[in-house]
């Protein structure tokens, strides 16, 4: 069966603070932590920042001395809203609100082992 970027169901776990689970039309299931989603933000500013650091979406950012006080504080979404029928938009507890996570983008960045291996091939 071909890969589908159309969700069958979407569960955003705001209260638990754990992330998003999507079941796709083709039966594949994707689970995204909020910290992972924030690190892959598709907005222009975040994309440019990652590019300047030479990082691909999902790759950890280099640690700086100033980061030491914030280690262990995971970022959380405080609100999630649909953008038409094609995307989700998150409001993050760090104040960031840009970036529409389209279904195509979310399927492309699925962090499961099978999808990660397929991207590396």
Summarize the model shown.
With 121 residues, this protein is α+β, with helices and mostly antiparallel strands.
Task: Summarize the structure in words.
The protein is α+β, with helices and mostly antiparallel strands and 121 residues long. The chain has 4 helices and 6 strands, in the order βββααβββαα. It has helices at residues 34-39, 44-53, 103-108, 113-120; strands spanning 7-13, 19-24, 29-33, 77-83, 87-92, 100-102. It has a 3-stranded antiparallel β-sheet. A hairpin with a 3-residue loop joins strand 4 (77-83) and strand 5 (87-92). The chain is globular and about 35 Å long. The two termini are 20 Å apart.
The count of helical stretches stands at 4
Which value, in Å, is the CA radius of gyration? 15 Å
User: What share of the residues does DSSP label as strand, in percent?
Assistant: 25-35%
The stretches of 5 or more residues where confidence is low (pLDDT under 50) are: none
Any chance you could write out the topology, listing elements then pairs?
Elements: E1 7-13, E2 19-24, E3 29-33, H1 34-39, H2 44-53, E4 77-83, E5 87-92, E6 100-102, H3 103-108, H4 113-120
Antiparallel strand pairs: 1-2, 2-3, 4-5, 5-6
């Amino acid at each position: 069966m071909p890969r589908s970027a159309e969700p069958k169901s979407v569960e955003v776990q705001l209260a638990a603070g754990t992330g998003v689970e999507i079941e796709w039309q083709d039966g594949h299931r994707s689970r995204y932590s909020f910290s992972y989603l924030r690190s892959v933000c598709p907005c222009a500013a975040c994309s440019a920042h990652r590019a300047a650091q030479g990082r691909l979406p999902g790759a950890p950012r280099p640690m700086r001395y100033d980061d030491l006080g914030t280690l262990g504080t995971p970022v959380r979404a405080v609100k999630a809203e649909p953008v038409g029928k094609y995307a989700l938009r998150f409001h993050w507890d760090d104040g960031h609100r840009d970036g529409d996570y389209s279904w195509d983008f979310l399927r492309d960045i699925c962090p499961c082992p099978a999808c990660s291996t397929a991207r590396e091939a």
